[in-house]
Queue: 4 jobs
Job 1
Amino acid sequence: SRKINQYLILREIGSGSYGRVNLCQNEFTDRYYACKIISKSKLQKKFRWTSRVGSIESRDPLSCIKKEIAILKKLSNHRNINSLVEVLDDENEECLYLIFELCEFGCVMNLELNQTVRPFSEELARYYFRQLFLGIEYLHKNRIIHQDIKPENLLLTADNTLQIADFGISRIFAENENQELNEIRTSPLFCPPEACQMELDTVSVINGPAFDVWSMGVTLFCFVHGHCPFEDDCIPDLYLKINKDEPQVSGALSVELKDLILQMMKKNPDQRISVTNIRSHEWVHNYGNEPLPSEQENSVIANVTDDEVSNAMRVSVFTRIRNLFKKSVSKVNIGSSL
């Protein structure tokens, strides 16, 4: 193990967009956290080969990280968003370290391609889906499209609270900007039909909120079936299945749950159920027996501006690694700015 400032870096516990995730411990408090370690040189190499010409990322390989930090600084106060605690960086260091609240139970469901795991009961699926919904509703109210919703990015805390993680490919929209996506980086198994068509160059822009709704529908399908609705080792064949085949929903599910899954997985995004209508769906609120927090209670607006994305990696935002190695100074806590 090694130490970065007051954090002892322990074993690897996972990976996310653009970095591995390690368990770490604050030696001052003995509290455990998750540390996302990002190699700047590897990130630069990756974007040198994968970025589309003219995109923001092709001009600035660290833009995805700036975006994730800017989003999390604004939104980490929601109980269903994984909280960013601190960022450790120095321009002379090879790695950037993001310290997150630890989700001790890991991801909500571990899926493997072409394998079936034990599905959740409808009651447990509803418990987790409601929390996913509240997190997504909150993001959409703040004009943020996650773009990578899947069980792997849904983490569970020690008290079984679901938190949405990994905002590395999320998209922030300005106040008066149409929430349309013109570039897709997402997990193929959770990709909506219109995004598959974009990958095949038959569609130029897609609706952002509808994109997340499809991925939520696939995730809910996984919760109650233990596998993805469409699977194939060949990506083009997978995209063909997503575009042409209908999800095979188990006959053992309640009529209301089957209806919700199929409405979220409508092939045509214009016909897909909206976030607003998901909130009022009978299965979600359990026929009125489990009302959700009101939309107003769940949707405090926390605007993320272009300037905040551009300035997300200013030195003042970070605890400087070099300073703490060279001087006996106290920890800089950025929690109040989150």
Job 2
Amino acid sequence: MIGVLRDWPIWLRAFAVSLRGELLRHPRLIPLIATRPVMNLGSLRSVEKVVAALCKAELNPLRAFHIINTVTTFVTGHTLAEAGSTPGHEDFAEELGNRLDHNEFPCISEAIRRGLGSSEDHQARFEFGLDALFAGFVKTACKYPNIV
């Protein structure tokens, strides 16, 4: 599961992609998962394995938890925003482009025209967010692995 220690950004990113995929397959569970994380021995054992692998990659346990929590919070929040809907506003994003004054909101109108809110856009934003997170992790966590 874990892979080569120096490749932790690769396998942790793969975990993030996999987690998003599973959450999207079960969208009605996302609010529950977001607000009530699983805290049982099985989940703690899984977390322990990941933290231990990050520690073997020369990060301290607290820094490892910072990284894991940042990744899972990003994935859960992004997926909740992507798959969630507000009762009574299901068609809001779709209709926004039709109701918007393009002269008053030219940038928003152009973003909608280019696919803002589409499944491709959600995927691109997710990838962009992961790229930014992991670039920051590698720069700061590896530069200062034991500061905390």
Job 3
Amino acid sequence: MASVNSRLEALETRAVRRRTQRRFKALKMPLNIVEFAMARRYLGEAIFPRQGTLLKLAAGQLDALTPYDHRVIAEWSAGFTRSLGSDNPSFVGSWGVQPDILDRIALMRERTGGGLEEFLAIIGRRGSKNFLGAILAADRLYRLCAIEDFTETFGIQRGKRLQIFVFAANRDQAIRNQLRDITNMVTHAPCFEGLVADASKGRLLLYTAAQRAARGDRLRPADALVEVLAAETTERAARGPAMPMAMFDEFAHVTGAGSTADSVDLYQAARPATRQFKGTGFVYQASSPWDRLGQLWISYNRGLALDPATGTALNPEIGLVQLCSWDPYTDWEHAPDIEAWPDGPTFPAKAEPVIAFDDYMARAEEANVESFGTEHRGLFRHSGIAYLKRDRIDAMFTGWKGRDLTNQSDGLLSISYAAHADPARSGDRFGYACGHLEDDDQGIPHVIFDEIAYWSPQDFPHHQVNYMDIDAELQDRIRRFKIGQFTFDQYNSAGSIDRLNDYGHRPDRSWTTDAYVRDATASMNWKMFETFKTALGHGLIHAPADPLLRAELEALQYDKGRVDHPHQGDIQTKDVVDCVVNVVWTLYGDNSQAIFDRLCATPVRGSQPAVLATPKTIAPPKTLTPQEQLSNTGSAAVRRIRSRRSTTPARRLSRTRYY
């Protein structure tokens, strides 16, 4: 009797194995990543319409785009524009998507048969970065599990395990966040039933369908050929594995503290492992932004860079989005009317968005604009000790008395101008600025810049600045502008000053120009920068839009009692800023305090813009007098009402939901 029972059990086991093997003959592929995310037979996730657009872009699936997707992409694309007149052209902006992202995807599909090789999701907090990353990883895992032979497909050693690495500031963070989302999604998805070998802390192991078809229930976790692993944040961990996908979670915050690698070293160690998977290798960098340092900032700029010769993408393999926390949930109320893919179902109804820009968010932004910008608006900051506020800088370039400001070629005889030049070492940039005073309707003098200019070594033969050529151009400027005072930085300026004074004091000239050195002592520099900062806070400085000047202003740092440029990152100069600050000091000088006090006492009228409360510096040097500590003035100024970006909901689409 026992032998009969044993025989029956063996027959039943073989029958189960045959059924299992038949069930895992092949995995049915979804039409696109949104079907994979939404359909109950796959992941069964209820996604928002704009999350669907993001997934299609990241996966490079142009055929899945709907008219709604194209409208959203057009809206996002408007956030970036091409820079003009630059030796290093790029897209410029701080919100949206690269305007040529669809062209990039089409080009990469033509080159490799796949889509983008890298995707940067730079989105504010609670913007579903990990959720989207989990769907992208699950889609990649499902497609890997459907491959019969990795050796034949990828040319790797037979039996070698494919690994998706998840990196974060440390391994525990990778386990808690991105890996947990992937594990939860995969282990609860019907499409992965029978494929999960192990889901212990720190890793997820999967069998392929071919393995299950061949060996059924005889497989053990050690046999699994696909793995998702929370990796140590070290260069050594990133080297060696066969890695079809690398995920970098909150990558802007990977700084290399202690024994961990910094983001640049980590990326450089991991990237070659994904490149061997041509057409399928993928890097997902997701983060709310932080400083303009590290690999996320480098990749961001590489993704925006354009070829100077053709104007096309210099690195077409990189796609990126830069969005506010609430942007992925826009149009949530219209979800049941929006088609998920061409001729497909509509999105599921939503009760509310995950996050929205409401009164609470508005108050949080009002309380700390810069912090809110990095946390929720997806804006990079230059430094934790930034000297100037972004909204003050923005206001400087908004024009004057209803007109846009541009560089002028000639001045007016009725106006007296001031100029400053910052000579450089022959291999560095030479800066110049010229401006004048002009009263507003209340008789308050504003500084109006007539020209912002600089000469780069690349403008000269052998990439060496030619001072004689520049001096000739400066002489031409004091011929065309009635420049009374022309100041210079003390470095390498003696020859230029002598030549300009010889020209400026010629008897045949209608006016005299005095060129002289302004000694840049620590006390004088602090006084000039604080005067500039206070004037900027009151909205008294107006200049033509200049990308370098804006970048240098945004990069200024307050550190140990002095204002300086960063010593790492893309912007490591303040040549043009120094010129602007010196011109402001020449025009205002010791009268600045009286001007600021008068401005604070002036009532706001209907046609007069409210002045900005003067920003307070972290801590001025102890040796300065109260008069020099000008950034504390203006406490009675009226708070400016800031404008906020609003989005226009898409038009309702008449669709029948059948999914």
Job 4
Amino acid sequence: MSVNLALTRCCNQSCLHCYVNAGGARNEGNNELGLEDWIAVVKECRDQGYEHVHIFGGEPFLVSFLPDLCDAIDDCGMAYNIATNGCLLKPTDYGWLQNTGGSLVVSVFGGEKFHDAFTGAPQSYFRARETIRTCLARGVNASVATCLMRRNMEEYSSLIKEFADMGVEEFFVLHFSPIGRGEALFEEAIEPAMWYTFYLRLKQILPAIRQAVRHEVEILFELATYPTDNPATLHFTQEVMPCPLPRHLSLTIDWTGRVFPCILFLNNPSWALGILQHQPLEKILKELTFDWYNQHVKQNRCPSCRYYGKCQGGCPAYTLGMLRDFRCSDLKYLPFCPIRVIPV
């Protein structure tokens, strides 16, 4: 199992879609957890059976103790990766990343012009690309993550070809979540039919990309939806799954020690399960059960639908104050967990 650690809300960029609503400079007076606090959190996570740590923010490389924290994660026998915009790494960072077996997931949203405008940071595309190039040269695993919306969807084919040609082997296609700053971009959300068609298109072009670059290329895709035209497949498909909250599969701990059942709830304090400074993680996890899910999520959804037993109403973070997931409209496509990745 993997746990998500939101190390800081501070960021050196201002990406238009950011579901964390990250931004601002980091300083000692912002009440974010320190190194010893985070090491204690990591040990608690290890003791609860978590084997992998996903570090994100904000921008984790704004945090001065990041190398020490990653050393501690490695000492605990846990693997980790860091989601980053790739613009702040120093030459010394590649050494400790290599020594601790860390990997980077670098955000790239499109070509240079689009990426720089979207992040609000000139030269950010060039810096991200150079960070990836340096990782590959230094033996540090680096993958590329791209959140797709209507405005950058058509750029993705050229993006993946460019970075695969550089030597990148792993790509993440992220489903746009209209929460945080993304609420203002709701019209950029890709409807399920178009999203599923895009997934099928990637399956078609992937063999040609692999042949062209002559190395393995894997695309991990947040499928998020599935057609209902073949109901039998919904009984056994491994491509989608309902909300995983009670299974502890998306547990997220933020920069203040608050524990959330899912990474998509970071901007909604009412979903906090507890604060680690006040109660141990073991106790918090014992309360995150199917009974809790039925009480807080399931009872207010749409059980009258004949497909409810499959999708269970979709994603609770996507209800946006409504009774059901905004992606559910004509019942031709069902809304499933939007952050579960599958290989294309």
